[in-house]
Amino acid sequence: MIETLRNAWKIEDLRKKLIYTMLILLVVRIGSAIPVPFIDPSYLQGLVSQGGNLLGYLDMLTGGAFSNATLFALSISPYITASIVIQLLTVAIPALERMQKEGGEEGKRKLQSITRYSTVAIALLQALGYYFIMKNNYNILTNDSIWAALVIIVSFVAGSSFLMWLGEQCNEFGVGNGISMILFAGIISRVPSMISQISSLPCFVVAENGISLVSFGSISPSRTCFTCFCIWLRFNLSNLVAITTGSYPFDTIHRYIILSFSEGA
Q: Is this model's pTM higher than 0.90 or not?
């Protein structure tokens, strides 16, 4: 793992890409902490913490941005939805199919432009839906005037559009797929809190003298998060270093890393 990081850092082009990607992820996390006005996040956090509902799932994908009613509460989901819709329409609409197959680079750029506009439209629909749900069903708005509605909806749409742009910049100048990196950052940011909740749950272990009640607290949350991150980083960086340096074929299958929890945290 350490050797992979060293090899990656020695390559100037790859080092710039890594720094650029880290800066983008930093911007994403900062935007996930900027609250949208006129929303009471404490009540929304209570609804999300109940679990077993759609709100908890959305909050996990956004890295806590949804429960805190921040600028990136919609996350990158409008762009993902728009991409899926456009891909399906290329099969149903002959003009889009010809654009994809025969248009070359120009056709790809046009499809990407259509996807961007579709993303903004879907984000607008989602922002409107979230606003009316928060207003009519949960009553968590501190101000229900037209100006407040405009600020909330525009903030959600602008945040989602900005994330789409960051993802495209990461595709061009960073490491890996930008959309996947943003989703990864949001999910990983929720891992420590989820593991801390799991560590407080009891479990039953069969011992020689019967069934004993123990806790997951002996597993360090920080150690678990670091292990998951190391596995992900190992697979991505090793492939990228190999392709950049040409040290081995592209289709080489890497061995899995086995990290042991036998040592204490």
A: no
